[in-house]
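new request in #modeling-help
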Amino acid sequence: MQENNKTRAVVLLSGGLDSTTALAWASLKQDWDCYTIAFDYGQRHRIELEASAQVAQVFKSKRHQVIAVDLQAIGGSALTSDIDVPKDMQDAAGIPATYVPARNLIFLSLAAAFAETVGANKLVIGANIVDYSGYPDCRPDFLTAFTRAADLGTKVGVQAGGFEVVAPLIKLSKAEIIQLGLSLGVDYAMTRSCYDPDAAGQPCGHCDSCHFRLQGFAEIKQQDPLLSS
Amino acid sequence: MQENNKTRAVVLLSGGLDSTTALAWASLKQDWDCYTIAFDYGQRHRIELEASAQVAQVFKSKRHQVIAVDLQAIGGSALTSDIDVPKDMQDAAGIPATYVPARNLIFLSLAAAFAETVGANKLVIGANIVDYSGYPDCRPDFLTAFTRAADLGTKVGVQAGGFEVVAPLIKLSKAEIIQLGLSLGVDYAMTRSCYDPDAAGQPCGHCDSCHFRLQGFAEIKQQDPLLSS
């Protein structure tokens, strides 16, 4: 057993389809020791925090850390404020209403701090530009610029070789992401994607996130186990 | 009155000597409409949050926003964890124990989110490299890299001309910062700098922050009004 020599990674884990697949990839395909981080940021879809904890356990996260950060106080997003979550893809042009101001900038910054305390250099994020091209903070250019800022502004950057932001899903379609996850044994019944679930946590079936998830499963002619569970 | 045409800035306001001076500069010398942001991050020196709210009021902050972000859960710093705050400058080499992992990266990210919702492009920070050269996240290179990441990862960057991070104190000595503040009428009795105050909020007089503050006032032959108040 030389577990201590294994590469360590912090995985941003919302408990959704993408981040769960990214964790499976990092843990099973890369064989990295994974530390998971989730954010309690005042999101409507808080059920994802339960999903996140369950997924972390299944993929043997070395430590699952939930960080409370009050983005609701800042507002400006359909995911944290009184703005309605758009349904049925009515307005797909530009930056979606579900964009949360500077979310990945904030989440990656907190992940970098966590990585520093657990001795990890890799930050794994399920960012994707195929389905959600409207989110600026999912683009490769942003991830590169973030890495540079983190390297210049942290102890890991100055003293420990710097960070690597790894985005294994960045150019995959939703169908390809699901195929990757299924090939790694991911049980998607555990994951939660809906931006606007009902009180029982059931997906609305109409927000962008539900739309892409349904389309992804349909493309590969699979049933979403979340809907049949 | 054309107040709505005034430049808007978000000022990171800890309630300490530096950030208070930066706010005075932005508000009185630049005549910007200032929105202030403070962070409740599990710091030992929570009295700074009260100072911050008072300073915000004195300098007519348009909105003072306290954001809760649980950095104590991440740990790794004398300011949030069980590590002792170093006294009497025993170990000034390298990165100090009072370094908080990725703090300015996290705080600037949250400030960028706040700026986005209030329509501000400028982020004002009291970062300084003269006294605290050990903190990587106070260096100009970091601030430049952060600006680039924020521009690529936010709506302001993509649609509204981008951010400017302004660090008016970056190359000033503590004495010069105090002189600037006094010339703008800052009452330093309001501000709190100590990393490790007692239960009544009184400064310890021995941590790095107290040390530089005392030295700064001594250099310009002034009495720190906090100590005589």
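bot summary: The two ends of chain B are 38 Å apart (CA to CA).
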